């Protein structure tokens, strides 16, 4: 999306929800103690390459930029390493040097310092230490791990303290080091180990140990390794059950846990050494041949790529529904229970374009049927996910979905709510009003074609995760704002913001409101990728659909909105992914653990599905699954929404400025 164009939208209130002797100033931080398989250890030395120990496939990763890499830390699947560049940017690089060197966090204000970059345990975010000027204290910051436009301070506010050397753990938790200030802006005195736990009112920070520094979370999140008087110590998160991992008379620093939690690597004088975490070799750690570097284990975990498909557009939509929504007749089904069903006609997109966002907002699957009768598989899926008495939304007038369809649904015991207008534009307005009578953001896309509205649908639907006003979709007649859409926009509060998605809608939006934000790519694929970059940050699912037809992307967009993940488009019948989709998969691979491909192999080719799995995967690649039924289940999604929700910003002007900065910096 090298020539995607963006325009200022005006300020919109930002909301960030969510998520002794060690320690001489400047000591390298502990890194990347995340769970996984394997025992590959990497060593970095503020140079343009990273050395690998125990990896038969590679000995060295050279930065293609090239630039020096400091404070290297690995994502949970080992696909990307985050590092601090010489100009204080936080960037990530793919494990094999392919793809893009990706800016993760905004370029800092001149004069600021950063140090100690580390991933959160679910890959959704990164943490680092930051100092705003020479006399200020160090603070701990957290931001999303992809296309970051939002960040927040998680260390306590106030003066007289420094907080450094963070290490991310599971469930958004972070351990870091606290020190006093010497009166001139420099840390001094005995360090302490602190624990941050996300929650209401900005989270909670508690003391782990009052004599320790440079902490590293264990992979299971139950213990912490830290340095006390030059030795590596392990304790639980209350500071109890201490174990001395080292006791030999050499200074130790920068601990990092092996992915299985059995060993800890660390700096030992001018070398790197390893010792069992249970203290059984405290007097005689194993010294590695490589010297003068900072160790970081590379966790390895298989991601997965799933195809959601059937033998028709009806059964594909059913497969998408079955991937997430619980069976109402099975009380043991722990998946999310649908609160409604959204039903669209299957033969044309005209009345359907707002359906993805509606379905996500209503926590509902989106299903398809012919205009004149209820398709049998669709009827069976409605009965599987929705108890009698539940609401089925029909998109469009009886000319779109007939009274016969309505009667069949009522005959199954459901309440029918028809959302319709005199044309596709008025129907989109009716859908938007059902979502929110006075939304904070309005995505505007052409109603004369489908790609831009479908990419925007996942974004609008995903705003259910943010503590900010709802986003909805309305339609233009290409570059002309229809009367129904104009009347709707006129009725909204003065604080609403309009975002034109795609060239035609951007022209209509700009003509209506000089402060509208335009998101325009070179083509439909580039525009969808632009939507992903601006509106999704650190999410763990990504969807891929063909840009050549609409039914699979419509149902898929509804699911992606419910998963808080982007939908990107690709030329589905080609042998390779489109460049825009490929780049999106590459850049998000450190956070994404599941890619979902919508439609059969005749819609999105098998070679593209395989390529998607390769790009999101690390050294172990991705497992390929067909019609999974646990998409977004708690066991895979984690206990929290993640740093992506924290980084969700309602300041769309800031998002665009951020994206321009990222694009300019990616060399």
Automatic annotation (TrEMBL):
It holds the Pfam family PD40. Keywords: Signal. Residues 1-32 form the signal peptide. InterPro entries: 6-blade_b-propeller_TolB-like, Bact_Sporulation_Assoc, Cell_wall-bd_2, WD40. Gene3D superfamilies: 3.40.50.12090, TolB, C-terminal domain. This is WD40-like Beta Propeller Repeat.
């Amino acid at each position: 999306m090298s020539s995607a164009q963006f325009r200022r939208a005006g300020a919109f209130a930002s909301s960030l929800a969510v998520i002794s002797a060690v320690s001489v100033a400047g000591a390298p931080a502990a890194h990347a103690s995340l769970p996984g398989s394997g025992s590959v250890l990497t060593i970095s030395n503020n140079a343009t390459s990273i050395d690998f120990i125990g990896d038969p496939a590679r000995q060295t990763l050279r930065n293609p930029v090239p630039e020096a890499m400091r404070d290297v830390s690995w994502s949970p699947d080992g696909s990307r390493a985050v590092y601090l560049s010489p100009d204080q940017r936080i960037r990530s690089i793919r494990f094999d040097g392919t793809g893009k060197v990706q800016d993760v966090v905004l370029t800092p204000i001149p004069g600021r310092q950063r140090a100690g970059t580390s991933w959160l345990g679910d890959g959704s975010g990164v943490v680092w230490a930051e100092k705003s000027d020479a006399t200020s204290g160090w603070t701990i910051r957290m931001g999303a791990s992809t296309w970051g436009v939002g960040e927040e301070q998680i260390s306590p506010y106030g003066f007289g303290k420094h907080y450094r050397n963070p290490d991310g753990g599971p469930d958004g938790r972070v351990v870091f080091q606290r020190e006093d200030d010497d009166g001139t802006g420099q840390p001094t005195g005995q360090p302490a180990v602190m624990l941050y736990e996300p929650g209401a009112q900005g989270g909670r920070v508690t003391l782990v140990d009052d004599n320790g520094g440079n902490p590293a979370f264990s992979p299971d999140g139950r213990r912490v390794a830290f340095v006390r008087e030059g030795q590596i110590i392990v304790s639980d998160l209350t500071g109890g059950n201490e174990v001395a991992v080292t006791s030999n008379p050499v200074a130790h620093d920068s601990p990092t846990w092996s992915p299985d939690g059995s060993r800890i690597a660390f700096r030992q004088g001018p070398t790197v050494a390893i010792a069992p975490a249970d203290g059984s070799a405290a007097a005689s750690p194993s010294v590695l041949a490589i010297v003068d570097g900072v160790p970081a284990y590379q966790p390895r975990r298989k991601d997965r790529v799933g195809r959601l498909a059937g033998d028709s557009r009806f059964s594909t939509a059913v497969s998408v529904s079955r991937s997430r929504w619980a069976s109402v007749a099975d009380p043991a089904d722990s998946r999310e229970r649908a609160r409604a069903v959204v039903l669209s006609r299957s033969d044309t997109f005209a009345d359907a374009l707002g359906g993805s966002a509606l379905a996500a907002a209503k926590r509902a699957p989106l299903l398809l049927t012919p205009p004149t009768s209820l398709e049998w598989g669709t009827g069976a899926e409605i009965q599987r996910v929705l108890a009698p008495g539940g609401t089925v939304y029909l998109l469009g007038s009886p000319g779109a979905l007939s009274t016969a369809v309505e009667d069949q649904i009522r005959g199954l015991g459901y309440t029918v709510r028809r959302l319709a207008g005199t044309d596709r534009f008025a129907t989109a307005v009716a859908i938007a009003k059902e979502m929110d009578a006075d939304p904070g953001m309005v995505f505007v896309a052409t109603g004369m074609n489908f790609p831009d509205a479908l990419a925007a649908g996942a974004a609008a639907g995903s705003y259910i995760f943010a503590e900010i006003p709802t986003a909805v979709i309305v339609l233009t007649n290409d570059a002309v704002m229809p009367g129904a859409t104009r009347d709707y926009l006129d009725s909204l509060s003065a604080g609403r913001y309009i975002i034109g998605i795609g060239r035609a809608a951007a022209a209509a939006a700009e003509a209506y409101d000089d402060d509208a934000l335009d998101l325009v790519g070179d083509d439909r694929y580039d525009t969808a990728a632009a939507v992903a970059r601006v509106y999704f940050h650190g999410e763990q699912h990504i969807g891929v659909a063909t840009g050549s037809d609409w039914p699979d992307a419509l149902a898929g967009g509804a699911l992606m909105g419910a998963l808080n993940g982007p939908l990107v488009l690709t030329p589905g019948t080609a042998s390779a992914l489109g460049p825009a989709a490929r780049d999106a998969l590459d850049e998000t691979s450190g956070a994404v653990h599941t890619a979902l491909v919508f439609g059969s192999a005749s819609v999105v080719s098998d070679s593209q599905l395989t390529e998607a799995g390769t790009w999101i995967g690390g050294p172990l690649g991705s497992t390929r699954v067909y019609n999974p039924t646990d998409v977004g289940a708690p066991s895979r999604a984690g206990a929290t929404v993640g740093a992506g929700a924290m980084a969700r910003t309602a300041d769309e002007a800031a998002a665009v400025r951020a994206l321009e900065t990222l694009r300019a910096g990616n060399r």
